[in-house]
Amino acid sequence: MSNEPLAKTLGLLSAELDISKNGLPILSSGAQTFYSRYNPKVEAERFASTITSKKVCVIGLGLGYIAEVLGDRLQSILSFEGESARLKAVAPDSFQKLFDKIKEFSNLIELERAAANSMSPNVSFVIEPSIAKAPQLFIRLQDLLKMFSTQIRCAVIHLRTAGDVIRSLQAVQNFKQQNPNWKITFITEEPYGELAEMAKGIDEVIEVSKDASAIPELPRQLIAFNLGAEPKAVQILSSFNPVFSVGFSGKELALIDDRNMKHAEELALIRNRMNRYHFYQMLLGLTPSFDTPKLSLEWKPQDYNVVQFGAGSGAEIWDAKRIRPEIIGEAIKKYGGKWIAVGSKDEFVRAQTAGIAEEDNYCGKTNWKDLAELISGAKIYLGHDSGPTHLSSALGAPTLALFGFTSPILNAPVGPRTLLLQADMPCAFRGCKVACSEKTCANSFDSFAIIAGIDLLLANTLSERLDAAEKLTASGIRYFIPQISVEDENPFRKDLIGEPRIGCPIDLPLALLREWLELRERY
């Protein structure tokens, strides 16, 4: 790392000192001069008269002519380390006049961030003429200021998997609503671009290949959010050099926020203590809510139901999440109606085992867009902790989620008509890091519990709800309604806010959260 001042490293101090016709110092480089050879102060006054803003931020100090003639309109001077010493030596009186306005930076990106933080409709930016001594720097700053004055660019990177991509869409949409004039680019891995393209309001979706590590065609972004803890996402983010980075970064995938490191520290505390649906909202600086993403498809039930038999695909199949297909098959047969099976090609045989007819077995035969269209017409959706289940919940279809060893606190799908079932076992509720060989939680389900879950999901009266709930309890199954948020008057709220290791969780009722936290401590 160089010990030279930043201005010298960038080549700004190599300009030669010369004298104008009226005896004032100017800077030049060969035949090029950066100020008028006749009267640089008059030249600066003429230039300042073309600026209509009442507040002006000058990037670069040079010999201070423009900054000095701006008078009370000068908000700040963002200078490069080494420029102040030159001005003090060449024009000490000018240096003293401007001293209180100078903010000197030894790092280019920190200077750019200071410019971004000064951005306001009432503030104009001016690049000091002597910056032209470093052409590449001048072009970089021009591009930054052009983005300030035209359209702010923001990238959100979430490569995988399907369920996580779906859970992040509402956060991105809310961020766009708060920044309607910004251009939001969502970057994801194939084949999840189809999911992102369903979300209304996202300006651009870029789908990258699984081996991509850069996006050369993407222009520089003011802010880039990395929502997924994946090394490849960090490489992609670095490739377009955003002014601010927020989210997972570095080899250790630590959480950062270049705008506010305290925010990053708070995120690190709650990262594994709340539903990712809400974590993504908080990462983008939003107030967590239970709003679902606005998708191009809406739930319009037709005369069929949809069932999904697994979780994951290929090398990432989660057996411990799966309820035995024979049990699910028995349940849907007893319940009746037409059932269409969906999922990856790995689930085709499981659907057959459950008794799904070949013409109704769509496993491995749909892309995400086709799958969304199928689910949007389902009277009932029945599935596991998986991407299709999160999609169903987001579409607003009546969704019954069957959970094995993953915690509902962390992974519950969020939607207006969603019910989650899980074996009444502490180890399953807190979430197992490594599933036991017996897979007792998944094997606790029987067809009666699943049918009771469907009845509870569709219940219209209190007596129907109580009857279904009683059957679930008798079967050793707990149920959760992810929409129920924490009320401010809840007596546990104050206690939980006071525990720095968790921050303020907001997912399920706090009584459940208290139980969950105690289990996390005990096991």
Number of helices: 23
Distance between the termini: 47 Å
Shape: elongated
Biggest sheet strand order reads 10-9-8-11-12-13
Q: Helix content range of the residues, please?
A: 25-40%
Mean pLDDT: 88
Q: What structural class should be given to the helix and strand makeup? A: alpha/beta
CATH homologous superfamily classification of the largest domain: Glycogen Phosphorylase B
CATH topology of the largest domain: Rossmann fold
Tell me the total number of β-strands.
19
Binned strand content: 15-25%
Number of domains: 3
Catalogue the unreliable spans. 485-509
CA-based gyration radius: 30 Å
The major β-sheet equals: 6 strands, mixed
Description:
- The protein has 523 residues and is of the alpha/beta class.
- It folds into 3 domains: 6-149, Protein-Tyrosine Phosphatase, Chain A, CATH 3.90.190; 153-283, Glycogen Phosphorylase B (Rossmann fold), CATH 3.40.50.2000; 305-483, Rossmann fold, CATH 3.40.50.2000.
- The protein has 23 helices and 19 strands.
- The strands form 4 sheets. Strands 10-9-8-11-12-13 form a 6-stranded mixed β-sheet, with helices on both faces.
- Helix 17 links the parallel strand 17 (399-403) and strand 18.
- Helix 8 runs parallel beside helix 16 (387-395) and helix 13 (325-335) crosses helix 20.
- The two termini are 47 Å apart.
Name a few traits of the molecule:
single chain, 523 residues, alpha/beta, Protein-Tyrosine Phosphatase, Chain A, Rossmann fold, 3 domains, six-stranded mixed β-sheet, 23 helices, 19 strands, 17% strand, elongated
